[in-house]
Amino acid sequence: MKHPRLGEDLKGKTAIVTGGAAGIGFAIAAALKQHGVTVAIADLNEDKARAAATELGNGAVGVAIDVRNRASVEAAFTSASQALGGYDILIANAGVSGGTHKRESAVDDRYGGEAMPQARTIFATNVEGVLNTLEPVMGRMAERGRGHIRLMS
Q1: How many CB atoms lie under 10 A from the CB of residue 97?
Q2: I need a labelling partner for 110 at 20 to 30 A (CA). Which of 49, 117, 120, 151 fits?
Q3: Per-residue pLDDT tens over the stretch 37-47
Q4: Pairing state between β 148-151 and 38-43
Q5: How far is 98 from 43, CA to CA, in rounded Å?
Q6: What angle separates helix 23-34 from helix 46-56, to the nearest 10 degrees?
Q7: Confidence at residue 2, expressed as pLDDT on a 0 to 100 scale
Q8: pLDDT digit string (tens) for 81-107?
Q9: Given phi > 0 = left and psi -120 to 50 = alpha, else beta, which region is 77?
C-alpha cells in the first residue's frame, strides 16, 4: 500500500539495496519502486540481481556486490551511480545467518566460493560488510549534501 506523503517524498529518488535480489531486500526494492524510486539491486549473485532488476522494471539495474570486500563495494556503487546518475538512498540489507550449528561451513558459491569457518563468514558479512558499505556511501552523500541510509539487521 502506498503512503501518500511518503510517495511525494520519494518520487524521483534513486536507491541502492544490498542483498536485494530476493526476500526482504527484494520486497524493499519493490516498495521503493512503488513510490517512484529507481533502484539498483546489489547482490552477491549478479545473475539474480539482474533478473530481479528486470522484474522490477522502471529503470532498475542489477549489480554484483560482495559486501565483505571493499573493492567489490566500491565497484558496485560506482556502477550503480553511473547507471542511476547518483543515489539518494542506501538500504544496507545484505546479511547471512548460520543456518546450522556446525563449526565450519563448506565451500559455498553464495559466499564467493570460499571455505570459511561459519562464524567468520557471518561476522565478515554482517559486521564488516556494513562498515564496508557505509564508509564509501557516507562520503559520497556528504559531497552531494543529501542522502538517507537505513541498516537492516
Answers
A1: 9
A2: 151
A3: 999 999 999 99
A4: unpaired
A5: 19
A6: 30
A7: 52
A8: 999 998 999 999 999 887 654 444 445
A9: alpha
Instruction: Dig out the grid coordinates for 4 from the structure.
Output: 501518500
In total, the chain counts a number of residues equal to 153
**All residues at 6 or more sequence positions from 42 whose CB lies less than 8 Å from its CB, including other chains:** 16, 17, 18, 19, 20, 49, 62, 63, 64, 65, 76, 77, 80, 94
Contact 137, 147 (CB under 8 A): yes
Virtual torsion, Cα 7, 46, 152, 73, nearest 10 deg: -100
Per-residue H/E/C for 18-65 = ECCCCHHHHHHHHHHHHCCCEEEEEECCHHHHHHHHHHHCCCCEEEEC
Instruction: Indicate the residue type of 52.
Output: A
Q: Which residue matches cell numbers 567489490? A: 72
Which is higher by pLDDT, 3 or 40? 40
Q: Which three cell numbers stand for residue 78?
A: 560506482
